[in-house]
Amino acid sequence: MTRALSVGVSRGLLETRMFLRERDAVVFTFLLPVMLLAIFGSIFDYELGETGVSFRQYFTAGMIATGIMSVTFVNLGVAIAVERDDGTLKRLYGTPMPRASYFVGKTVLALILAVLETAVLLGVGIALFGLEPPADPGRWLTFAWVFVLGVASCALLGIAMSSLPRSGRSASGVLNLPFLALQFISGVFFAFGQLPGWLQQIAALFPLKWMCQGLRSALLPDALLAAEPAGAWEHGRIALILGAWCVAGLALCALTFRWKGKADG
User: Fold this and answer.
1) In the chain, where the domains are located
2) Which of the chain's termini has less CB crowding within 10 Å, N or C?
3) Is the dihedral of CA 115, 121, 126, 132 positive or negative?
4) What does residue 54 show for φ and ψ, rounded to 5 degrees?
5) Does the global pTM surpass 0.70?
6) Dihedral sign for Cα atoms in the order 195, 201, 205, 211
7) Alpha-carbon gap, residue 187 to 211, rounded angstroms
């Protein structure tokens, strides 16, 4: 286990260096969320009811959650599908490398990218939209556990979903479709309480809604509770649902992950 962890961490750091050398991937991964935040934050400049909270700040919290899901669920799922399609996974399977090291490496890559993405978006929100970092240790703790559970659940789901595309070429479309749909119903582009009830119920089944809510509770004042459908931050429910998705994602990985492409039998 120690060797698997050591090899996995080394592989994850190597993959991170390789990713950062790909200028197009870096620009798309980090610049696109910043552009969306800057554009929509500039357009939708209004207060949410009588809460005194600007929608721009609300939107920033949602975009941080979106950024986390993007670099875990989407990036991991697409990358693994491509590696399966081009035979990389098949070749790795035949090497002495412990199988667990591959997943440790991908987790390290996703965690590093999620930290960088979060730092960039948080910095933009503070610089442009008056967002304030958590004001006390309790809010920082909330921010930390929501971040960790969000990264873990979305990374596991990305690994599990990587087996769904029929080829590496179709992976981006297959993974981005549910990701984009969830953004519109999870309290990112629209205040969650303004959505129809049936959409709220659908969104509540998936991690992104709870990541957004958890990050709002850490970054925004309690005056916003007047705009939350439940009238409370529901930290216990957030932890329970994100934890359940971690367990479900792990089970799905065990059931669906394939080292070979469909053409390899």
Assistant:
1) 2-264
2) C
3) negative
4) -75, 145
5) yes
6) positive
7) 10
